[in-house]
Amino acid sequence: MLSRRIFTSILLISVITVTIFNELACGLLVTAFIVAGLYEFFTMLEKKGISIYKYFGITMGLVIPLSLVFRFELTKNWELLFIVLCLLSLILMQFQRRNNSGVVVDISTTLFGILYVSWFLSFMIKIRYFPGGIGLFTAVLLITKSGDTGAYLIGTRFGKTPLIPRISPRKSVEGAIGGLIFSILGAFASRPFFPALGGIPLGRENVFSFAQVLFIGLALGILGQLGDLSESLIKRDCQVKDASKILPGLGGALDSIDSLLFTAPAFYFYIVTILK
């Protein structure tokens, strides 16, 4: 398991390293993970017996990242309009049903999947498309994945105290603490990637002070673990161990991006707040 995990991780790092320097390639890579994650999410719900609109959800979920990649916006805040249109479409689709059982659940879970996987991860594209986005994209990846790695390594070696056993029996308090420490270390290791906010001129030598880097590492470390636990909660409800087996040693695409689903939006809005 460990050897497969290492091999797959090296392969993913190599692919990211090749694509990160090109905006289009990087955006399409994130889009591919979104599509795979949506497919896995909806497949898990199907196994649970929920009649979601799988391919409608995947198609609608694909619109969000592609609109960012190709910079197409109907309105300034088009995402809210898009969500309303998705909801309206799902309601209209219910008129074709033969019975009304499960209507609310089917609509809610389909819309949730679009927001949870597609909208949340699409913030990685927004981060990459910032001026100096290469550094910022690298930073959020390094901080988040350092936390994942630390939680796994420390938890495997020293984990004795269960964190939330009903959600994830293998996760431990020791692993969670180790993950936070690694995230903070990852934040300080990332500091060279965002001097003066990744090259954005703000009139200051370095926007990220020691305290801010510490805050970023701690905040993203906590959010990353919450993202991991959230997906574990969904998998436990659907009674599956991994979202899929597409990535040997790591599970599915959703298993690989679960922590980023929370850290990417938070990091994006933090950057936007600083810019203001």
Tag the structure with descriptive keywords:
276 residues, mainly alpha, 12 helices
What would you call the shape?
globular
Could you tell me the radius of gyration in angstroms? Answer: 19 Å
The structural class is mainly alpha
Helicity level? over 70%
Characterize the quaternary organization of these chains: single chain
Amount of beta strand:
under 5%
Number of strands: 0
Instruction: Catalogue the unreliable spans.
Output: 197-205
Distance between the termini: 46 Å
Strand/helix succession: HHHHHHHHHHHH
Number of helices: 12
| Average pLDDT metric | 88
Largest sheet: none
Short description:
With 276 residues, the chain is mainly α.
What does this structure look like?
This protein has 276 residues and is an all-alpha fold. It contains twelve helices and no strands.
Could you give the topology of this structure?
Blueprint: H1 2-19, H2 23-48, H3 54-69, H4 78-93, H5 103-121, H6 123-128, H7 133-158, H8 173-190, H9 196-199, H10 210-238, H11 253-257, H12 260-275
Helix pairs in contact: 2-3, 2-5, 3-5, 5-12, 7-8, 7-10, 7-12, 8-10, 10-12
